[in-house]
Amino acid sequence: MPVASSYFLQDRIMSGPSDYQPSHPVLKWIERRLPILGLMHSSFVAYPTPRNLNYWWTFGAILSFMLAIQIVTGIVLAMHYTPHADLAFRSVELIVRDVNYGWLLRNMHAVGASMFFLAVYIHMFRGLYYGSYKEPREVLWILGVIIYLLMMATGFMGYVLPWGQMSFWGATVITNLFSAVPFFGEDIVTLLWGGYSVGNPTLNRFFSLHYLLPFLIAGVVVLHVWALHVAGQNNPAGVEAKTEKDTVPFTPYATIKDLFGASCFAILYAYFIFYMPNYLGEADNYIPANPGVTPPHIVPEWYYLPFYAILRSIPNKLAGVVAMFGAIIVLVFLPWLDSARTRSSKYRPLAKQFFWIFVAVCVLLGYLGAQPAEGIYVIAGRILTFCYFAYFLIVLPLLARIEKPRPVPNSIADDVLAKTGSKATPMVSTVIALAVAGALFAGSTDSARASERVDTPPAVKWSFAGPFGTFDRGALQRGLKVYKEVCANCHGLSYIAFRNLADQGGPGYSTAQVNALAAEYKVKDGPNDQGEMFERPGRAADYFPSPFPNEQMARAANGGAAPPDLSLITKARSYKRGFPTFIFDFFSNYQEQGPDYLAALLVGFEDEPPAGATIPEGSYYNKYFPGHAIKMPRPLSDGQVTYDDGSPTTVEQYAKDVTAFLMWAAEPHMEARKRLGFQVFVVLLLLSSLLYFTKKKVWAGAH
Amino acid sequence: MTTASSAEQPTRRDFLYVATGAVAAVGAVATAWPFISQMNPDASTVAAGAPIEVDLSPIAEGQDIKVFWRGKPIFISHRTKKQIEEARAVQVSSLPDPQPDDARVKSGHEQWLVVIGICTHLGCIPIAHEGAYDGFFCPCHGSVYDTSGRIRQGPAPANLPVPPYQFVSDTKIQIG
Ligand code: FES
Fold this sequence. Notes:
The structure holds two protein chains of two kinds.
Chain A: H1 3-11, H2 25-33, H3 36-45, E1 48-50, H4 59-78, H5 88-97, H6 102-129, H7 138-160, H8 165-176, H9 185-193, H10 200-231, E2 247-249, H11 250-275, H12 305-313, H13 317-329, H14 334-337, H15 349-369, H16 376-402, H17 412-421, H18 428-451, H19 473-485, H20 511-519, E3 522-525, E4 534-537, H21 551-557, H22 569-572, H23 581-588, H24 593-603, E5 605-606, E6 620-622, E7 629-630, H25 651-666, H26 670-700
Helix pairs in contact in A: 1-4, 4-6, 4-10, 4-11, 5-6, 6-7, 6-11, 7-8, 7-10, 11-26, 12-13, 12-15, 12-16, 15-16, 15-18, 19-25, 24-25
Chain B: H1 10-37, H2 43-48, E1 52-55, E2 64-69, E3 72-78, H3 81-89, E4 112-116, E5 127-128, E6 134-137, E7 144-146, E8 151-153, E9 165-169, E10 172-175
Antiparallel strand pairs in B: 1-10, 2-3, 3-4, 5-6, 6-7, 7-8, 9-10
Bound molecules: FE2/S2 (inorganic) cluster.
């Protein structure tokens, strides 16, 4: 992993001349003409860093590391991606399915965006807690806010590129924010779109800008680090370094500590990449963009949720947009809003309490941003929006006047000595804040339960669940049979090529079997030399032909509802896992909502709708389908498909088998993902522990 | 990287540093691999490179066709008696890239010449039925190939390569 390069970014710029002299004559020759080694030495190696920095300070390096990862994976993905409204979705799927390690690169990039934001939020809260924005670091802080804004723009445009439903409607909603501008709103939006709605021109320009902005971010990061090196790093004590005793040289002390921090962060990152790649995403984004249908529940990526909640809590369009942008812009003025002399909240008893309350407010706003805008959520959203702004505009200015800070240590060295003696008391404020948060959560979920009475699909024990899960070959083969004999009459499987059936980690057919199976199908090809289309037997490289030549015909033949393509269906369907289930899911590695839902749906048909439920003509009652009225008639019946391996020929068995098969179809490289994940985990754990001991050894000399 | 207090146990400290560095280096190399590997043809490209079948019956004597296999143009020429004789008449050892004609066609099917139509100089596509040798002529830098696709003149270093193929029947070949 390019950890070393992140240091380069972080520390490339250093003010002041260096007394570094290389000894090799060639290096000397270069150094006299371009003192780059001296620059590197003074910013990488000799740079004095406060000796009392805690692990929250490693997030600067972690962010550089994430920026590097995002740029490298992004450049690679752009080599395979097609920025066209008709091809983008499929090209992303083909990256995941066909490109060597494409699934890994895509997961790294998609999860990387989330990790980047996670790290930046920790970095920002750290700055907030320790007063890192105060004189003389105002410009440093403002540059950070600019980076954050650029990150938001980049992340948003990146999320549009896969061109799924959430991409499309996210792009629509966010660009429409600008329609709130008085007089010119509509014109601005048209300008942004390059059309009269979000479309191909929009996608193209977003791709271009998504490629550009990270390099701009890198540029501002250089300025950010430059400003950092002029002012020097802040530290937990919030007092400036005065003597040599207060600092240690950047290398090896900070270097090794940052490496250790980054390595630990990489463990979390790898957990998402290999075990929970879709945890932070939305199932709806596995449905190709459809300009005619908005998903019932539109939510942005988690890192925008607090701002989204603020936007929605204000019942006026323009005011909502202004509040949302204001929530970010207010950060720019933070150095002047908080005029308290004491930097670190460690010595500010009141500020510390309010800091934790503010953290809780942000988390809760994030939670609300993901909930439907109705009932108690709206009221809670308004209260929390008020709290958010009150923190900056009322609490901080007021505290600066009335709060009596505790005495700060004389020097960093004193702070280090004091720390070895006393142990920190449990933070009362944290407990209070968490209690408030917990109560609000509990309250809101209760009401959510009351409003949505939907049957939860029972959890099936899947062989592919868990960190070591693998597909059951027999189930995949039976599932393919069910698909071929039943589902294929109406549903396509257009991302699966016959050759995939022989791929490792799949149903395990031989190449000969696949060729024979492919030859059973008639595939349209051409034009031939006479310019005519013709039919020929399928080959391994062909994709499963779809039952209908176009969506209109599929719609017409099925009572107005086009049967969806099944290639991604297990990822594109889900059901709500409210709080706190979704937190447990993270630890239990549960990500089988899609398969659970699908298997339940297939058996959830009832001939007679229960009393009180009315089902429109041409629809059927299904227990698990949202709204219960599904256009698909009961597809499976006992004994319909013959099995030659003795498995029971029941609807339950069919449902499980075909679901397992479709799970494989949605992610053919799942086994490879989990296998590689295990190896990566072993290496990362080993590396982290080695780095930990190395760090201890190195720092032993500093204390 | 030396620190004063740990200098007493140089071997253990050194071992720790070396071990950490080694694991980090292995990790870095392993991480680099997917980024290199992704440049190779993806699975669909590989699958699309599967063998193709070509029906030869419509190609009259003296005619030739061009088909594509793996994105490469394949020339299939139905050679005339005269062309075959020309190809066999030359003294093989006098050629820049000596190869007898019968090593470049399938025995029993001498009238069919199947070559990859990419100039071995720098990759342009030669024109059939041109040049001094009744074979192919490359317009880019003037390489001339004979009726067996062998280089006779110009900067190209080698004969036009023969792709892997076989006759599945008298009038059908499978390339690849
Ligand atoms: S490429 Fe054919 S002669 Fe140069």
